[in-house]
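dumping this here before i forget
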Amino acid sequence: MARMKLLFSRNPNPRLAVAVARYLKIDIEYEHASPFAPGQAERYRPLNPNLSIPILIEDGRSLWEADAIACRLSRAAGSDFWRTGDGEPDMIRWISWGKENFMRACDIVHFERGTKQRYAIAPAEEAVIEQGLADFHRATVLLEAELRTRTWLSGDTVSYADFRMATFLPFNDVAELPISQYPAICRWYDGLCEIDAWRDPFEGIEAPELPPVKRAL
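structure:
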């Protein structure tokens, strides 16, 4: 098998893909990429017509979308991090629910307070933030209840469902989501942060820092 290459940045979904690769100890080349930087679009468009990262390159072919990449890397490692067999539907249940509920709410708030300010896209819209926080609390009540009775979301060991659900939490210094109100989620996330690959996936990798968030005065 040819060595893989992962195109990434420090943004949430690329960070997730790097964390997966580091956790699985995949022999992979990491390359920082900026498809939306001036003059870069045509370089990356053949790899992903959406111009988004992460992108996994293997045997001259590209695979995009973090979930697909995580599945491929787990198979390459021969790991059950991406559950297989009878455990797979339960894991996919959490990925699907999370993306439409918990992660979606986190993304809404992070985009307004973080991404828009980091890249000078537009001022944060308070009405959007308020709706995102309402959605966050609605989803988090369910997640909190589930995590009171388990260490990990799917089975007895960490899985991709846990990494995926936590995609935006490393950026909570800018999103300021009220996670502290939910002790079971805090315990679960503290467990994730004990995993080196999750806590600092970029250790030893050339990975330029994100632009700072510029708060409105």
